Known about the structure:
The structure is a single chain. The chain has a domain at 20-95: Response regulator (Rossmann fold, 3-Layer(aba) Sandwich), CATH 3.40.50.2300. α1 packs across α2. The model has no long low-confidence stretch (mean pLDDT 91). The chain contains three helices and four strands; from the N terminus they run αβαββαβ. Strands 1-2-3-4 form a four-stranded mixed sheet, covered by helices on one side. It has 138 residues and is an alpha/beta fold.
Amino acid sequence: xxxxxxxxxxxxxxxGEFNDASGKAQLVRLLDSLDGSGQEPPTAVFAASDLQALxxxxxxxxxxxxxxGDMSVVxxxxxxxxRWTHPPPLTTVRQPLLDMASVAANALLRIIxxxxxxxxxxxxxxxxxxxxxxxxPA
Length: 138
């Protein structure tokens, strides 16, 4: 949003746990805060995990809102379940989990050998995996 020079309204960046219950609760809280306010709801939600995104799916379904027609949903992790969500399959950000695990294991071994921990930093390449849960705003 910052790169596009678009403002993010206060309260639109909630923090929660990386699970479906938290994703649902945070989106319900946001939508409830907008009901009757005259403020338009967001056209998309980006969850910090695929599990949070699944909670957002549930919150939207319970309110009778279409994904992506009323709101696009994007997750993060590209868990196998992301391909099988219905409707529709979840758009998500894939991170190289095996590469990250390998780097972490090697870093741990070096720390055990006495090297300082602050020498290890990983910025994994991510990839947007576009599936059916996103569309241009109506």
